[in-house]
Design goal:
Layout lengths: L1 E3 L7 H20 L7 H23 L2 E10 L1 E8 L18 H13 L9 E8 L6 E2 L2 H4 L11 H12 L4 E8 L10 H5 L7 E5 L8 E8 L3 E3 L3 E11 L7 E9 L2 E10 L3 E9 L4 E9 L12 E9 L3 E7 L4 H11 L4 E9 L2 E4 L12 H4 L4 E5 L10 H9 L3 E5 L17 H4 L4 E2 L5 E10 L14 H4 L11 E5 L2 E2 L4 E7 L8 E9 L2 E6 L4 H5 L14 H14 L1 H4 L1 E4 L5 E3 L4 E8 L11 E7 L9 E5 L1 E2 L6 E6 L5 E9 L5 E2 L3 E6 L12 H11 L3 E3 L5 H10 L6 E9 L5 H20 L4
Parallel strand pairs: 3-4, 3-6, 6-7, 7-38, 9-15, 16-17, 16-19, 19-20, 20-27, 29-37
Antiparallel strand pairs: 1-2, 2-39, 4-5, 8-10, 10-13, 11-12, 11-14, 14-15, 17-18, 21-24, 22-23, 22-25, 25-26, 26-27, 28-30, 30-34, 31-32, 31-35, 33-34, 35-36, 35-37
Helix pairs in contact: 1-2, 2-17, 3-16, 7-13
Length: 760
């Protein structure tokens, strides 16, 4: 214990003089007090007041009492058991009674802990279970047998990090980790995270069979996640045959099934440890399809779960269908056909009027215009080349409703011919004009040569994808192409985006908007208001027209058609990556992307996803809604991790806040009853030894005879002396309430005695 003073040494004589003077002054005062109290009471009054003054003087000196407090803390032994479903596996023949890996781990803990329950000096034992993906939990060994592991997924590196954070600053002498070493989550930061084990006094105990009976497993499955109906889909994978006698060839039957049955199968003679296999099938139907890949089992094979794998293939419609309504099937229609032919996923149909009505160009059969939005929905985009000859035969209201629902619309007024000698004529019909991204009233063609020029800030638009910006889009416009001879004089509407201007060089005339795009509901509408567009498209300027150097005009129109047919996929609220197939117990991470019709991200709006089970919704979990969190690095993107779902088929739909609310397309996802945990049939001894080596500890196999006693002896040989904590405590008696209470009590006693003897 030590006493420290707040005032310097040179002030002590002054404080002593003040204290003595205060006492002398008190004695003198009470000698002159009238009426004079008796000697005994006068001495008490002097002592009370003198004590108060002395205490106040002492408080000015500020004494502080400090003492060193020593406490002992028991050393700690921590048992950690991997808490994942693979630890619930047994390593015995099917049907044989054998303890699981979890039960054998608990038995090993009991054998080791029997030496430390009454250890001297005392050792504090801590029992933890975890898999690195969820938080660590304490458990009691007596109760753990009734709560077997059920978590899915394991990351030993993250588990080491969690242990380091939890045990930091504690007197831990040893950490015993019991695991089968099988990991399902190994991220890009694996090396950095695994180094967390180096900060732990780690002893690793492996559980599970390192080798065993012959076993087949499907590995390294590769296939395209997105295909189109009718495509040939190639599925490459390997069948690994562990502990397989060399040179022994046995039949290997591999099958690929969908909900309707077998789509591909093959039979091989497998005599190698790794058998490469390829299955080919033709995609059928549309939408998300879950397929089951299976390899036949060996005779008396113990583990069958790893003989199966699940695939998720998003089968999309074979081709985007484009309908061309031509007032006159001229050269511009041929230009459209050439542009569509350059894109394998576009299918073009042309309709034009003749004496009998509207007919299909390829068969000359009568074509009946749709009168409902669903009828127009047979196509992904509609191209209108002029309106002469089709106005009055089309139902503009149903076409507008279809565009609102996502149909793309491109209008080329190039076939609209003005009457001879007339400078202006009637523009598009009212039903069509209301859909356009431009104002066409008043309407007229503006003669004069004008060159194409991309407007500022749109060079990165999807319509210009694949066009050499340095060559085709520059300050001089599309310099390699001829000018347009006539351009429609229009003005862009609010919300419309001008992609190409028609510029008359050297004349000082204002530029005219030539290519204007804009949203209409969920669809996209484009206006290309130039005459004789085909002349611009067929000009090659003496250079190649291959894909390496695409002709700018042809590529722009091709991109424009693709952009229009993909309106529902390129904008709005949708999944950044379509949900697929997930395993039982696997968390489901969904990422949403919200874009406006210009492709710009939508930020500051709340987003949620609804998961609805197909079929009996009550039995499969009902309808659940999860809020998505916006991404800090990708504007317009948001994500959520959904807890594991029961096996089955589900429908997921995004919803965004707004008036009215914005909804995305409803897509499917599949949760299979296959679990990666049940495919982990071997102890990953190499991984456990790596982890122990980083920590400078040892790795043993608890199923090896004598391994557990050897581990117990190694732990007993460690120094289990507890830690001594030294803590200095400070007591400042003069600044707290006890000091003030003492002063108040003394002064109150003095006041009471003075009043009793009638003193003023």
């Amino acid at each position: 214990m030590a006493v420290q003073w707040s005032v310097p040494v040179w002030m002590w004589p002054l404080l002593l003089v003040v204290a003595a003077g205060a006492i002398v002054w008190t004695v003198a005062v009470y000698r002159r007090t009238r009426p004079l109290p008796p000697h005994r009471w006068r001495r008490a009054l002097v002592m009370l007041r003198g004590t108060v003054l002395a205490l106040l003087t002492l408080a000015v000196a500020g004494p502080v009492v400090s003492c060193l407090h020593r406490t002992g803390e028991s050393s700690e032994l921590v048992y950690v058991v991997e808490d994942s479903a693979s630890m619930a596996l047994t390593d015995a023949e099917p049907g044989a009674a054998s303890p699981s890996r979890w039960q054998r781990s608990l038995a090993a803990i009991a054998a080791i802990d029997s030496s430390f329950a009454r250890h001297q000096p005392p050792v504090h034992r801590l029992f933890l279970r975890g898999n690195g993906l969820q938080s660590l939990e304490e458990f009691e060994p007596a109760d753990a047998a009734t709560t077997p592991p059920a978590r899915h997924g394991t990351s030993l590196a993250d588990l080491s990090r969690q242990l380091r954070e939890r045990l930091a600053g504690r007197p831990v002498r040893a950490v015993v980790l019991l695991s089968d070493g099988c990991e399902t989550n190994v991220g890009p930061g694996e090396a950095a995270l695994a180094n967390a084990a180096a900060a732990l006094p780690l002893q690793v105990a492996g559980v599970g069979a390192v080798s065993g009976p012959a076993d087949r497993s499907i590995e390294d499955v590769r296939y395209p996640p997105v295909v189109y109906a009718g495509d040939e889909v190639v599925v490459d994978f390997a069948v690994a045959q562990r502990d397989f006698p060399g040179g022994a060839a046995t039949p290997l039957i591999v099958t690929l099934r969908d909900d309707a049955g077998v789509v591909a199968a093959d039979t091989l003679r497998a005599g190698e440890t790794v058998v490469p296999v390829r299955l080919v099938y033709r995609a059928r139907g549309e939408g998300l399809q879950a397929l089951r890949l299976e390899a036949s089992a060996l005779v008396s094979e113990r583990y069958l779960e790893n003989n199966r794998a699940t695939l998720a293939v998003d089968v999309r419609r074979d081709r985007a269908r484009v309908l061309v309504l031509a007032g006159t099937p001229g050269w511009d229609v041929r230009f459209l056909a050439q542009a569509a032919a350059g894109e394998r996923r576009l299918s073009l149909s042309v309709v034009y009027p003749d004496a009998s009505g509207l007919v299909l160009a390829d068969s000359l059969t009568r074509w009946q215009p749709p009168v409902t939005p669903a009828g127009w929905g047979r196509w992904d985009a509609v191209v209108l080349t002029g309106w002469t000859g089709v106005d009055g035969r089309l139902d503009w209201a149903s076409l507008g409703a279809a565009v609102d629902a996502g149909l793309g619309l491109l209008v080329l007024p190039s076939a609209a011919v003005s009457p001879s000698g007339a400078a202006a004529f009637a523009g598009p019909p009212a039903g069509l004009a209301s859909l356009l991204p431009v104002e066409t009233t008043p309407w007229r063609w503006e003669p004069g040569n004008r060159f194409a020029q991309a407007t500022a800030g749109v060079a990165g638009h999807a319509v210009f994808e694949g066009v050499d910006v340095a060559d085709a889009i520059d300050a001089q416009g599309f310099t390699a192409l001829p000018p347009w001879r006539e351009t429609a004089r229009v003005a862009p509407r609010a919300g419309g985006t001008v992609l190409l201007d028609a510029v008359a060089r050297g004349s000082g005339a204002a530029a005219l908007p030539a290519l204007v795009v804009g949203p209409h509901g969920r669809g996209r509408v484009a206006w290309f208001g130039v005459r004789h567009l085909w002349e611009w498209a067929f000009w090659d300027a003496g250079r190649g027209t291959g894909d390496a150097v695409p002709q700018p005009a042809r590529r722009v129109l091709r991109n424009l058609l693709v952009w229009l047919t993909g309106a529902s996929e390129q904008s709005g609220l949708d999944f950044a990556a379509r949900p697929g197939v997930y395993q039982e117990g696997q968390p489901i991470r969904l990422v949403a992307r919200w874009r406006d019709m210009r492709g710009d991200p939508v930020v500051g709006r709340e987003t949620s996803v609804t998961i609805r089970a197909e079929g009996d919704s009550t039995a499969n979990g009902g309808v659940r809604t999860f809020a998505l969190q916006p991404s800090a690095t990708e504007p317009g993107n948001s994500a959520v991790e959904i807890p594991p779902l029961r096996p089955g088929r589900y429908r997921a739909q995004l919803a965004g806040a707004g008036d009215p609310p914005v909804t995305g397309p409803e897509v499917g996802l599949v949760v299979t009853d296959a679990s990666v945990e049940r495919t982990q049939v071997r102890q990953d001894r190499r991984r456990l030894e790596q982890l122990a080596a980083r920590a400078g500890g040892a790795c043993v196999d608890i199923d090896t005879p004598g391994a557990v006693p050897a581990l117990r002896q190694r732990l007993e040989a460690m120094d289990w002396t507890g830690a001594q904590n030294r803590q200095r405590r400070r007591f400042d008696l003069w600044s707290g309430w006890p000091f003030l209470a003492t002063i108040v009590v003394l002064l109150s006693c003095e006041w009471f005695l003075r009043r009793r003897h009638g003193l003023l």
